[in-house]
Design a protein that fits this description.
heterodimer, A: 241 residues, alpha/beta, Rossmann fold, 2 domains, 6-stranded parallel sheet, 4-stranded mixed sheet, 36% helix, B: 506 residues, 13 strands, globular
């Protein structure tokens, strides 16, 4: 069965590669020139120069991130260290009567000691063992806990990258999302994060790069804002440091 | 979804339907104003908006001008990431490829996030006729799918439905009566679609941008359903217009600055996702298998066409719809195609490569240029509408009565005696029909115009009739024209005469 499927895929691949030549030649001929084989020089690449010079100090970055995040209905708390993070999550979990929490499989999150703090809650650790339906574990979770890889003050966005230890589902499927944002990962402009992906190059990119700017929302019914349509409806950003 | 029989009626008839629907008109007006004001304040707050627009335009122009290179790069890089790439020349081909994949996967359910290309391709219809359930998961798209209708706005597809109508539709689905309350309705959809996400065999997405240098695809959304369909099901199929390409992630900053602000006035949508290939072997979520279908469907017809190539710069924000006085009045369905508003009026005939079948939607514009002003990549849509009308006339699809009328008008006004006589006749004749300084009579030659407006009455004394007096007054003050001004004007007239021959030669 598998081999048959793979044969079929290989067949498609062959067809696709043949078609590719024809497709590109057709574009070039419609543009009335020979095929462009070398990388053309981009006369303008990325944001305008005046923009790339913009850099805010830490205080301004925290303030702008907070204002933007709160303006779309997300919540912000300032915490000094991981102990305070742990305390915040434990309190929030009790307040919301959470029964299931899922967290990414990262050392910093392990060090929170949530299991000891919350013995009444079932805490799962993403992809920590084989033969488990991790998407289902994330879908049933009341709270998902993730670390921000980067954050952008200007747009109030957090960036999370996927890996075997860091599921895309953990920031998506739970009802409540708690994101820890170490302050040294908070930058001014979106470009500061985006440029990294050009620098590391294709081979080193994760499958999923997600910018999250607040709770899931929709205005599709009579322009009436609804929160939590598909993704988490309650989002906490804990700015640490 | 297609609108059955839409080609059998004219835009006027379809607008007649829209204009009679009072709620639709109010809803469209309210929503477009909300979005337009949101865009206005977001672009003002951001500052230097025209410089950003120009940057966006430059990046799009460059990419499209070298599309063979960048698309080829994207394809090679995406393949290296493990993506299966397919090419479709037509919408029929695109649908066949998607169906073939679904059939090989023995899929029974497909969950979809918003994709305008899939509307072009009428994919739901194709899947359903093969016995595969296709579920739209964007809240607005889900609602209009239940209603069996087409989107009426590119960003807010169910703009034309009120919550009572929506409650009725969803109650049928729920098998119980749901209150016409937004939270209740959205809560039902969340629960219902959650199950669908988890059980679906295939997730299907559109593509806002594709990054050539890394083979990544980028999705902008607010609900999280695009993340769902690209994270949970084992197979992902993405439909992508062949022109969605940008060179790099750093260029994405410009698009991410322009798109959300222009679409909804947001600084960034709640989610922006860059997906680079299927899940890595050790990952525990993301699709095992990922397909991207690159769709032409008439797009390449614009390449090398100096009048329409810039159409491919469009980033599908919908700002031109919100800015358009005609769209605000008649709503999206009156345009009859997948894309509505000014972009639809140009894109639909351009993609179809046949002006005559869509010969009336280019007329559904007042050519005021508000669409161009609103466009984040500065597409001269109002010029394109004029080109379309010109091509339509050149191809012999003009309105014969209009041509005769224009010829008659020319005959009368090119002779000053007959023109003066006609004005005097009108001044006398109008006495019977002028009410409140306007003529609303819907008879004879005034019918077409006065159906939608009130014609102004003729002045008691026309400009020409006042001319002798004005001329005398002016002569008293007039001095000889500055010689440099005179020579400049003569130069302009000479150039205009020389340019006359070239003007139509595009």
């Amino acid at each position: 069965m598998v081999t048959e499927h793979q044969q079929w895929l290989a067949q498609l691949e062959k067809k696709s590669i043949e078609k590719q030549e024809q497709f590109m030649n057709d574009i070039a001929s419609k543009l009335r020139r020979p095929r462009q084989r070398q990388a053309p020089t981009q006369p303008f690449r990325g944001a305008p120069d005046f923009w790339t010079e913009l850099e805010w100090d830490e205080e301004k970055r925290i303030q702008a991130f907070t204002d933007n995040f709160v303006s779309v209905g997300a919540h912000i708390a300032r915490v000094k260290n991981m102990e305070e993070v742990s305390q915040f999550i434990a309190n929030k979990s009790r307040e919301l009567s959470a029964r299931y929490i899922i967290r990414q499989n990262e050392q910093a999150l392990k060090d929170l000691g949530l299991e000891e703090q919350l013995p009444e809650v079932q805490i799962s650790v993403w992809n920590s063992q084989a033969d488990e339906n991790w998407k289902a574990r994330a879908a049933e979770a009341d709270i998902g806990v993730v670390m921000a890889d980067y954050a952008t003050a200007y747009t109030g966005s957090v960036t999370v990258l996927s890996s075997p230890e860091k599921g895309r589902s953990v920031s998506l499927l739970p009802t409540v999302l708690i994101i820890i944002i170490p302050v040294h990962r908070l930058y001014t402009r979106l470009g500061e994060t985006l440029d990294r992906f050009d620098e590391v190059g294709r081979e080193n990119l994760p499958a999923g790069i997600h910018f999250i700017s607040g709770p899931s929302r929709s205005s599709d019914i009579e322009n009436d804002l609804t929160i939590g349509v598909h993704g988490p409806g309650i989002v906490y950003g804990l700015i640490m440091g | 979804m297609s609108q059955p029989g839409v080609m059998d009626t004219t835009v006027k008839e379809r607008a007649g339907l829209a204009l009679n629907d009072d709620f639709l008109r109010k809803a469209v007006k309210f929503t477009t104003e909300r979005l337009r004001n949101g865009k206005k304040s977001a672009s003002e707050e951001h500052g230097n908006w025209d410089e950003w627009r120009e940057r966006g335009r430059q990046i799009r122009l460059h990419t499209i001008a070298h599309l063979d290179y960048y698309l080829n790069e994207f394809v090679n890089n995406a393949r290296a990431n493990g993506v299966h790439i397919h090419f479709a020349d037509t919408s029929v081909e695109a649908a066949a490829i998607a169906l073939d994949i679904a059939a090989h996967k023995q899929a029974s359910t497909v969950v979809k996030s918003k994709s305008m290309v899939s509307e072009e391709v009428h994919l739901n219809h194709v899947l359903e006729s093969a016995g595969i359930e296709a579920i739209e998961t964007d809240l607005g798209e889900y609602i209009i799918q239940l209603a069996g209708e087409a989107p009426s706005h590119i960003v807010i597809p169910a703009i034309h439905k009120n919550r009572y109508q929506i409650a009725e539709l969803l109650s049928k689905e729920a098998g119980e009566i749901l209150e016409p309350d937004t939270t209740v309705l959205a809560g039902f959809v969340r629960k219902k679609l959650r199950e669908k996400f988890l059980e679906a065999d295939i997730g299907m997405t559109g593509c806002n941008f594709a990054i050539a240098e890394t083979g990544s695809m980028v999705l902008f959304e607010n609900e999280g359903n695009a993340r769902m369909v690209s994270t949970v099901p084992r197979t992902q199929i993405t439909l992508m217009g062949m022109e969605r390409i940008i060179p790099s992630w750093t260029d994405l900053e410009v698009m991410a600055t322009l798109l959300p602000r222009s679409a909804t006035g947001q600084k960034l949508t709640m989610y922006m996702s860059g997906i680079t290939g299927p899940r890595r072997t050790a990952d525990a979520d993301g699709p095992d298998e990922m397909h991207i279908i690159i769709v032409d469907n008439g797009r390449s017809l614009q390449l090398g066409d100096p009048e329409f190539q810039e159409l491919l710069n469009c980033i599908r924000c919908g700002a031109c719809l919100n800015a358009c006085p005609v769209y605000r009045h008649i709503g999206g369905h009156a345009y009859g195609g997948t894309y509505s508003g000014p972009i639809g009026a140009v894109l639909t005939p351009a993609l179809n490569g046949n002006i005559d079948e869509w010969n009336d939607i280019a007329g559904a514009s007042s050519l005021c240029g508000a669409c161009y002003e609103a466009c984040p990549v500065k597409i001269p849509l109002h010029d394109m509408l004029v080109y379309l009308r010109r091509r339509k006339v050149e191809d012999g699809h003009g309105n014969k009565m209009e041509s005769m009328g224009m010829k008659g008008f020319a005959a009368v006004v090119s002779n000053s005696k007959s023109f003066s006589a006609a004005i005097r006749l009108g001044q006398i004749g109008q006495k019977a029909v002028v009410r409140n300084n306007g003529i609303s009579l819907k008879l004879g030659p005034l019918k077409g115009w006065n159906n939608y407006r009130v014609a102004p009455s003729l002045a008691k004394k026309s400009f020409r009739q006042q001319w002798n007096k004005l001329d005398q007054e002016l002569n008293e003050k007039q001095r000889a024209m500055d010689s440099s001004v005179r020579s400049r004007m003569e130069q302009i007239i000479r150039e205009r005469e020389e340019g006359e021959g070239k003007k139509h030669g595009h």
